[in-house]
């Protein structure tokens, strides 16, 4: 008995040295002895037994830190601990307690109770701690052994998890343990992938698997990510800009985008000019209409109702009209008759031309001559020309551009006539 | 004819429309049209265009770099070009650039080390795009394309609404 006690005492000081088996054997022996003793003489426990039990617990804890976790004895150890906890309050009795200090039984019992309580409280922690330690050790093992053992380790981990879940006591914590197990497994797997991808094993970084034959340093990865972002955005822009489906390549796409943005900006200018020109009627109607209803009405206005009719007309049908108007204007360049109806028609034509993608310069010429030689008409004309320039990308437009600027600064109708002549000839010959 | 699904009360279209119409009414109330002289027409055109741009920028508010740049431009223009000194221009541009840099930091984009790597031929179009899109000078290509997409969307709505207004009043 004393021998076993001494061995147990030695556990207090050298708990790390004892192997699990040895400890287990000692425990079993002690338990047997305890039961024997209990049957024999119900002697109150001694104070020394308590620290021994404490030591046992401590040694158990200490044993948890040791390796060889794959042995199921560890869990038997916890079981043992549980059984140890479930020992009756009186605690271990030893026959030969004369050598040890005697403590009043009630106090000892209380102390024992407190210890058992503490044991009960700490067992989940212990279990968790053990599990955590296992994970750490498993990770270490895996890192050293390599990827080939992943499946093996997984199976072991599963076996461990199964074994754990079998415990009725820790069933409540089993879920959390399994979860933590899974999380650690996932982290382990991801760390494995990372070790494959990158040369240096770095924990908790972005896990990117490098493709065959591609660099894996951070700069090239970042560059690749950036290029991917840019290509995604170019695809979005392709959807926004009409007529970009056929064009491949970034440079062409950017050109189209630039043209489109420029054309939209000029459209805004043109429309603001138009609204400025239509001022007298606007003033009255804006005041009359209620502000709340009008925006919705305007927003819902079926602009498409008018335009498809116009858009449906093929270009060649309007050409005679264009030719007529141009001829008419060329003949009566100085005093063009200004009629509202013709002006509106020309405006409609220009609108239609703006909405359609196939634009010719002839459209705005009719408009300018109908609107006489006012500055607004000059600007409208130049805008329309710019618009057409943007859509029909042609190097000859630069010449037109210079002419337009000239005309704009000098504001003479003759320059405009020249421009119109040039345009007419140019586009008719196309 | 009516399509209530098109306009939600808080949509960009409705916001722009209300603001623009309000601005138009203000312009007309401010100077009633008596004569259609070219200079007056030109002035009105300029005012309407500024109103359109302003209302669009205000509808977007300060969420986008281009709207901020546009608002700054309009404010400097409205203050009067004489009063604005070059130093204030530089300061405000720096402020815009700071904001874009702040956005960059938030988005954790890679820094300028990689801007030149897209190929030499890319740079010309990039610069052109930067000139066209307001506030595009201080952005990297990634953000520039974002801004361009939003700018195109706003421009199309602006054009649509203005067309409808013009149609409505021309009839």
UniProtKB/TrEMBL annotation, chain A:
Residues of the signal peptide: none
Start and end residues of each BHLH domain: 214-264
Region (Disordered): 160-203
Gene3D superfamilies per UniProt: Helix-loop-helix DNA-binding domain
Biased composition (Basic and acidic residues): 160-182, 190-203
Principal cellular location given in the protein's record: nucleus
Classification via Pfam families: HLH (PF00010)
SUPFAM superfamilies to which the protein is assigned, alphabetical: HLH, helix-loop-helix DNA-binding domain
PANTHER family recorded: STEROL REGULATORY ELEMENT-BINDING PROTEIN (PTHR12565), TRANSCRIPTION FACTOR BEE 2-LIKE ISOFORM X1 (PTHR12565:SF436)
Name of the protein described by the UniProt record: Transcription factor bHLH63
Organism: Hibiscus syriacus
UniProtKB/TrEMBL annotation, chain B:
Annotated InterPro entries: bHLH_AtIBH1-like, IBH1-like, IBH1_N
Top-rank taxon, per record: Eukaryota
GO BP of this protein: regulation of DNA-templated transcription
Main localisation: nucleus
Keyword Transmembrane set for record: no
Gene Ontology cellular-component terms listed: nucleus
The UniProt record lists the keyword Calcium: no
Pfam family, one: IBH1_N
Subcellular location per the Swiss-Prot or TrEMBL entry: Nucleus
Protein name: IBH1-like N-terminal domain-containing protein
Protein keywords: Nucleus, Transcription, Transcription regulation
Residue span, IBH1-like N-terminal domain: 11-77
């Amino acid at each position: 008995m004393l021998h076993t006690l001494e061995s147990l005492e030695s556990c207090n000081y050298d708990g790390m040295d004892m192997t699990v088996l040895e400890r287990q054997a000692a425990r079993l022996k002690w338990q047997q002895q305890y039961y024997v003793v209990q049957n024999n003489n119900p002697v109150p426990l001694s104070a020394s037994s308590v620290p021994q039990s404490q030591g046992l617990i401590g040694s158990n804890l200490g044993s948890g830190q040791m390796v060889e976790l794959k042995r199921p004895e560890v869990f038997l150890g916890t079981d043992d601990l549980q059984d140890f906890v479930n020992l009756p309050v009186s605690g271990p009795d030893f026959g030969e307690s004369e050598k040890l200090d005697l403590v009043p039984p009630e106090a000892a019992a209380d102390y024992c109770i407190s210890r058992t309580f503490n044991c009960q409280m700490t067992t989940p922690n212990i279990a968790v701690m053990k599990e955590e330690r296992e994970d750490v050790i498993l990770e270490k093992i895996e890192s050293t052994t390599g990827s080939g053992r992943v499946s093996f380790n997984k199976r072991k981990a599963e076996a461990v998890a199964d074994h754990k879940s079998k415990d009725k006591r820790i069933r409540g914590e089993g879920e959390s343990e399994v979860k933590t197990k899974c999380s650690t497994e996932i982290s382990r797997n991801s760390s494995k992938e990372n070790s494959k991808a990158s040369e240096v094993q770095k924990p908790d970084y972005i896990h990117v698997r490098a493709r065959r034959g591609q660099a894996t340093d951070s700069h090239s990865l970042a560059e690749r990510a950036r290029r991917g972002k840019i290509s995604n955005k170019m695809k979005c822009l392709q959807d926004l800009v009409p007529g970009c489906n056929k064009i491949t390549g970034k440079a062409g796409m950017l050109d189209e985008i630039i043209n489109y943005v420029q054309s939209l900006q000029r459209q805004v200018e043109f429309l603001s000019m138009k609204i400025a020109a239509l001022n007298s009627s606007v003033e009255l109607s804006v005041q009359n209409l209620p502000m709340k209803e009008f925006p919705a009405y305007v927003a819902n206005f079926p602009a498409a109702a008018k335009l498809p009719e116009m858009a449906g007309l093929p270009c060649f049908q309007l050409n005679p009209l264009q030719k007529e108007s141009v001829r008419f204007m060329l003949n009566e360049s100085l005093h063009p008759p200004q009629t509202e109806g013709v002006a509106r028609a020309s405006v409609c034509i220009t609108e239609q031309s703006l909405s359609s993608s196939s634009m010719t310069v002839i459209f705005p010429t009719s408009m300018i001559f109908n609107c006489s030689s006012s500055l607004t008409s000059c600007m409208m004309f130049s805008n329309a020309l710019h618009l057409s320039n943007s859509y029909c990308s042609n190097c000859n437009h630069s010449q037109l551009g210079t002419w337009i600027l000239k005309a704009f600064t000098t504001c003479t109708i003759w320059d405009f006539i020249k421009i119109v002549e040039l345009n007419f000839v140019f586009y008719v010959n196309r | 004819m009516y399509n209530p699904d098109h306009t939600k009360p808080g949509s960009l279209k409705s916001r722009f429309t209300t603001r623009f119409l309000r601005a138009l009414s203000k312009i007309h109330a401010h100077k009633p049209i008596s004569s259609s002289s070219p200079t007056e027409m030109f002035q009105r055109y300029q005012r309407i265009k500024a109103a359109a741009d302003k209302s669009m920028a205000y509808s977007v508010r300060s969420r986008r770099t281009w709207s901020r740049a546009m608002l700054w431009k309009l404010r400097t223009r409205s203050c009067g070009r004489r009063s604005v000194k070059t130093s204030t221009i530089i300061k405000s541009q720096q402020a815009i650039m700071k904001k874009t840099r702040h956005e960059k930091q938030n988005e954790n984009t890679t820094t300028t080390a990689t801007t030149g790597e897209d190929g030499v031929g890319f740079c010309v179009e990039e610069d052109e795009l930067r000139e066209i899109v307001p506030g595009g000078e201080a952005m990297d290509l990634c953000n520039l394309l974002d801004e361009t997409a939003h700018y195109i969307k706003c421009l199309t709505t602006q054009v649509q609404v203005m067309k409808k207004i013009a149609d409505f009043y021309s009839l």
